[in-house]
Design a protein that fits this description.
The complex is a heterodimer. Chain A is α/β, with parallel strands linked by helices. Chain A has helices at residues 3-8, 27-34, 56-65, 81-93, 123-134, 163-176, 189-199, 216-224, 232-240, 244-260, 277-282, and strands spanning 13-18, 41-44, 70-75, 98-102, 151-156, 180-185, 205-211, 265-269. Chain A has a single domain (3-212, 265-274), classed as Alpha-Beta Barrel (TIM Barrel), CATH 3.20.20. Chain A has an eight-stranded parallel β-barrel with strand order 1-2-3-4-5-6-7-8, surrounded by six helices. Chain A starts with a helix and ends with a helix. Chain B is α/β, with parallel strands linked by helices. Chain B is elongated, with a radius of gyration of 22 Å. Classes of the chains: A alpha/beta, B alpha/beta. At the A-B interface, helix 5 and helix 6 of A face helix 8 and helix 9 of B.
Chain lengths: 284, 198
């Protein structure tokens, strides 16, 4: 069963994400990937945090060759409509069907604050463009010789306030053609349930994003990110743990157990600590 | 109006290297409202020039430099303008080019054209002159200009407590639009309206 078929099943889906190397040495990337062998799909980020890395498409193709099911992340930050449509066709030619379409972190958050932010299309427009390509024509109305097929995902942030505006955007992305969602990081299952109850939809799967807290220092970094809300109880557990990493693994595992009772699945963002994902999942 | 901001003295002097005399054109339209071509601004630039041994041959304050025909009429009667080889502009970039369209003189821009902005009580960049207005669909607020990602179909996930993730001091423009949509019972319309790429 591929990822698209799994989205139609009742399976609790587990995905994770990998970031490409900064440079041409892919050995660490491949090693981290091995820890994700048993997952339903693996996202590859697209110059995340607006910092320059090897391309998502190249790394997705390598994952595909190694027997993984990749999800190509595409941001609308760095490419205009010509390059975005071309990237989608390239993905399809390479056998990559799953794409996660996101706006991407603004250049001002990254290594190149003066880089030109492109945003020629927005997320809704690119989702629709991908659906248009599937019908055999492009945005200029030109006929394609051979048309692609996609499984399209998008992002939603449960912590964005006013919350109802995110609910509305999720609905709008579904209308545009999104089939699955991966959320920004959450730490509070009960709080997420309130949001999930507002957004759950029988036609799409929504995977809750979770992050492994590896140290008190990393937790401080996370807390500075917009909209990240770590409950005091979790903060205390990490701060007082003799082994914060194993406490973080436990917290992740407990969160997944809670999410299993109502969520469609989880998306694990281990940010370089992917080797611990099998451990997180074995504690279930 | 077009918001203009004065360039640094270093940049102005760099562009004036080798010049010994200039004629100044100041715009009484937008630039005056930006306080970049008012009396004080003219005095400031005149002082910078005299401190650097550059003679001011004359000053013409035009109602709006971008009115090419009027500018040409007025300047053709000004002997000092005719004599000058180099013209210094306290105007936006359009003013510089309007004069350039009928004059072969050397043109020096003193100001940067920063934005189409509202003035008072503060300068607010409201319009990016894209030539394709969507304000009728966005409650009169332009997300193309005021959202750092220029998202026209709704916000990203980066708003927290109504503030923009790029600049937490600023309201997320989509939250402002959302509040108006709510007030005007237009949320359903927003959900079902898709703004095509243009």
């Amino acid at each position: 069963m591929n990822f698209k078929e799994k989205l139609k099943s009742n399976k609790f889906l587990i995905t994770a994400e990998l970031f490409p190397p900064k440079g041409t040495d892919i050995s660490s990337f491949l090693m981290r990937a091995e820890s994700l062998r048993d997952l339903d799909a693996v996202n590859v980020t697209d110059n995340q945090r607006a910092s320059m890395r090897t391309g998502s498409l190249a790394m997705c193709k390598i994952l595909l060759e190694k027997g993984f099911e990749p999800i190509l992340q595409i941001t609308v930050r760095d490419r205009n409509r010509i390059a975005l449509q071309s990237e989608l066709l390239s993905a399809s030619v390479l056998g990559i069907e799953n794409v996660l379409i996101i706006s991407g972190d603004h250049p001002s958050a990254g290594e190149y604050p003066s880089a030109k932010p492109v945003y020629d299309l927005d997320v809704l427009q690119l989702i629709k463009a991908a659906r248009t390509l599937e019908t055999g024509i492009d945005l200029a109305g030109k006929k394609l010789k051979g048309s692609p097929k996609f499984c399209i995902g998008a992002a939603v942030n449960p912590a964005a306030t006013p919350n109802d505006l995110q609910v509305l955007m999720l609905k709008k992305k579904i209308l545009a053609g999104a089939e699955f969602f991966q959320t920004q990081t959450i730490f509070d299952a009960a709080q997420y349930k309130t949001f999930f109850d507002k957004i759950k939809n029988p036609n799409v799967k929504i995977l809750a994003g979770i992050t492994l807290i590896k140290s008190p220092k990393f937790m401080q970094f996370l807390q500075k990110l917009p909209g990240v809300n770590i409950p005091i109880k979790i903060q205390e557990r990490i701060n007082s743990a003799s082994d914060p990493l194993s406490e973080g693994i436990k917290i992740c595992s407990e969160l997944i157990s809670d999410l299993k009772t109502f969520s469609d699945g989880v998306h694990i963002m281990a940010i370089g600590m992917e080797e611990h994902i099998p451990n997180i999942l074995s504690l279930q | 109006m077009i918001l203009t901001i004065k360039k640094s003295d270093e940049e102005i002097l760099e562009s004036l290297k080798g010049e010994s005399a200039v004629f100044i054109i100041a715009c009484a339209g937008c630039a005056v409202k930006s306080h970049t071509a008012d009396k004080q601004a003219v005095e400031t630039i005149s002082k910078l020039l005299s401190d650097n041994n550059i003679k001011v041959l004359g000053i013409e304050i035009l109602g709006a430099v971008c009115n090419t025909q009027k500018a040409q009429e007025t300047l053709s009667k000004n002997i000092n303008f005719q004599k000058a080889k180099t013209i210094l502009f306290l105007s936006c970039g359009t003013g510089v080019q309007a004069v350039g369209s009928f004059s072969d003189k050397r043109l020096i821009a003193v100001l940067n054209s920063a934005a189409i902005a509202a003035v008072e009580p503060s300068y607010s960049k409201f319009c990016s002159v894209c030539g394709d207005c969507i304000l009728s669909y966005t409650q009169g607020i332009c997300p193309k200009t005021r959202c750092p990602k220029s998202l026209v179909n709704g916000p990203c996930g980066g708003f927290v407590n109504g503030k923009c993730e790029i600049d937490p001091a600023k309201d997320c423009v989509w939250v402002l639009i959302y509040e108006k949509l709510k007030q005007n019972n237009a949320l359903d319309k927003f959900l079902n309206r898709f703004i095509e790429p243009r």
